[in-house]
Design a protein that fits this description.
heterodimer, A: alpha/beta, Rossmann fold, 9 helices, B: 6-stranded mixed β-barrel, two-stranded antiparallel ribbon, 13 strands, elongated
């Protein structure tokens, strides 16, 4: 059985707007294991983004217990959460979110720099772009890239630092069908070859079709948890671990 | 600080070119103003110091004790020739000369005027810092130069004869007839209004002073070190028992004025710093506010808040320094352009007098703006520091950003 890298038990999140309390998560129970390709689906306001923010250590739960790589998110300091994001997590956002004044290569390089990667930083960033078929776009700034290209660069940035868990919030929301397909193939290919775990939220049925496991959130709770038969992560990725992933994504 | 922080900060700075250009222009114009003001103040300060330590006082003066109190004719310095020789041999002394001051009555025709006869050594007073700088030649014999204002009052012209009557140092009557060889305009007010200048030997003869004088004017290498020079000279055997004072002690009111001019720039600098702080803080607040989502994304990627704060501070510093450097370029060019020809403040203010009289000195309204390297460095450093202070507000806001909230916008 693969390792559990994310464990949520009765996780709640309540936002306060003045005196009004707005519950976004009402008790989520979920486990995510290494190598999963998991889609979070559900109507707007069901808590998908809130859960991804908690899983990504961008926020802390109001109640319950959330462990990411064995660490209790609620107990981590701001700096420790930043360190966890830097070392273990990758993010892909809905609206591309590349730094507009940096080229594609520099955007990827930025994360490696944050990790303290030294002299070989540029070579590693270029290798990641090349691996994702973006080598020719390396010197372009985001404004010179199409939406699909920008999102692929965002994926390159998310995986360049060799995270074990990649969280993607509506990654295809701004893409047309063709680019959404390309992106999903790219992410799934990365998962297959490097053993990275992907958790992404989506409304798009074509995207859901790529998922191996589909978790449906309704009103801040898990309403359904479906795993496609024969595609459990430990069966899809026998023997693939982080060491092997590192070998594929640069030196 | 990494190169990527600098690169990112620089590129971020120019994301909104119009806003950054406006801020840079505002800071730059403020710097131009302060440099222009500095250059005028420095011109004033230097000119005042040169005037006070030049034709008027020199760096150090030597008098007989008590002479300054009553300016009595008989309180003289003796053996002046030997004393001057001793002074001129001293390695700390660059120039030394003697003067005689004698109140007298001067008459052309039947009307008499109160004057001060000033006996000077023409050879030692015609250099640029001397009392006769730019004056007509003073021939040997019975010739005098007359202050222009006095000459106008007396109706004197060059070539006229002037009768001088006074009291000799020994109490005898001193009188003789002199030819006016020229009119003088100096920056020392009393010389223009009351001065009748004659050769030192001629004055010593007229006032029965022999090898005596009332004042020795000594110059060293640096007016700022005149106090040390006075201490050094007072220990010389030739000056034992005499009053040896530096120009700061002789004219404390002028020193006060020079020092006041020296600190006046602070007031304008404060205004400039306020303008720079407002420009930087406003630009950086707007810039970071617009980029809240992006900054949240950087935090999400694992950037520590300190890293983001550093980026904002570097941006603010760059903004201030770019403005300061642009302003310095324009300001220095402006000062350089006006330094040679000078600026006629009388014309700028719609005419009026070309000179003002104050503290025994005449102040020209044509100034020659000048800047020292320290003036420029001071302004640039001040704008840089102000930018850092101004960055505190936006930086504090960025430091408090919660990534999840920032990502929501």
């Amino acid at each position: 059985m693969s390792d559990v890298i994310l464990s949520a038990r009765g996780v709640t999140k309540i936002f306060r707007q003045g005196r009004i309390e707005v519950p976004a998560l009402r008790g989520v129970d979920l486990e995510v294991r290494t190598g999963e390709f998991l889609a979070l689906v559900g109507p707007s306001g069901s808590g998908k983004t809130t859960f991804l923010n908690l899983a990504g250590a961008l926020d802390v739960p109001t109640g319950g217990e959330l462990l990411v790589f064995g660490k209790r998110i609620a107990d981590l300091s701001r700096a420790a959460r930043a360190e966890l994001r830097l070392r273990e997590l990758g993010f892909v956002f809905q609206a591309y979110n590349l730094v507009p004044v940096l080229t594609a290569l520099e955007n990827v390089e930025f994360v490696l720099e944050l990790q303290g990667v030294g002299g070989e930083r540029r070579e590693r960033a270029r290798a990641v772009l090349d691996e994702l078929g973006l080598g020719e776009l390396a010197d372009r700034r985001p404004a010179e890239l199409s939406g699909g290209q920008q999102q692929r660069v965002a994926v390159a940035r998310a995986v360049a630092a060799r995270p074990r868990l990649v969280l993607a919030d509506e990654p295809t929301a701004n893409l047309d069908g063709e680019n959404a397909e390309i992106l999903m193939h790219l992410m799934r290919d990365l998962r297959d070859r490097h053993g990275m775990t992907f958790v992404f939220s989506t409304h798009d049925p074509r995207v859901v079709a790529h998922a191996v496991r589909v978790v449906t959130l309704v009103d801040g709770r898990v309403a359904r948890d479906q795993e496609k038969p024969g595609e459990a992560p430990h069966e899809i990725l026998p023997g693939v671990g982080k060491a092997e992933a590192a070998g594929h994504l640069g030196p | 600080m990494t190169g990527s922080t600098l690169r990112l900060a620089w590129r971020n700075l120019w994301r909104n070119r119009r806003r950054t250009t406006l801020a840079v222009t505002a800071i730059g114009l403020s710097v131009v103003l302060v440099l222009a003001y500095d250059s005028v103040l420095r011109a004033y300060g230097d000119w005042m110091t040169e005037t006070v330590t030049g034709p008027m006082l020199g760096h150090v003066q030597v008098h007989a004790p008590e002479w300054r109190k009553d300016r009595s004719m008989d309180r003289t310095l003796r053996d002046v020739t030997a004393t001057l020789s001793a002074l001129r041999r001293d390695p700390e002394v660059t120039d030394a000369t003697a003067r005689v001051y004698a109140p007298a009555l001067a008459a052309v025709g039947e009307e008499g005027f109160a004057v001060v006869v000033v006996g000077v050594d023409p050879a030692a007073e015609t250099h640029p810092m001397g009392l006769l700088a730019g004056a007509p030649a003073l021939p040997a014999g019975r010739s005098v130069l007359v202050g222009r204002l006095l000459a106008e009052q007396m109706g004197l012209r060059v070539g006229d004869s002037l009768a001088v009557v006074g009291q000799g140092a020994d109490g005898s009557l001193a009188n003789d007839l002199y030819r006016v060889a020229g009119l003088v305009d100096t920056s020392v007010d009393f010389v223009n209004r009351q001065g009748v200048l004659m050769a030192l030997g001629e004055a010593q003869t007229l006032f029965a002073m022999g090898d005596e004088a009332h004042e020795l004017v000594v110059r060293g290498r640096d007016p700022a070190r005149a106090g040390e020079l006075a201490s050094h000279l007072s220990a010389l055997p030739a000056l034992r028992g005499l009053e040896v004072l530096d120009w700061r002690t002789l004219s404390p009111e002028m020193v006060g004025l020079i020092e006041l001019v020296g600190v006046a720039w602070l007031f304008v600098l404060v205004l400039v710093l306020v303008a720079a702080a407002a420009g930087v803080a406003n630009t950086m607040l707007m810039s970071t506010h617009e980029r809240t989502h992006e900054l949240g994304m950087l935090l999400a990627l694992g950037a520590r808040p300190g890293r983001i704060v550093r980026m904002v501070v570097v941006e603010a510093l760059m903004l201030g320094l770019v403005g300061a450097l642009a302003g310095t370029g324009v300001g220095v060019a402006l000062v350089a352009a006006t330094h040679r020809t000078g600026v006629d403040y009388a014309a700028l203010t719609g005419g009026g007098p070309q000179e003002l009289s104050f503290g025994g000195l005449r102040w020209s309204l044509r100034l020659y703006p000048t800047l020292a390297v320290e003036d420029v460095l001071r302004v640039v450093a001040a704008v840089g520091l102000t930018s850092l202070v101004a960055a505190a507000w936006p930086a504090a806001r960025v430091a408090r950003l919660q990534p999840s909230k920032a990502l929501r916008g």
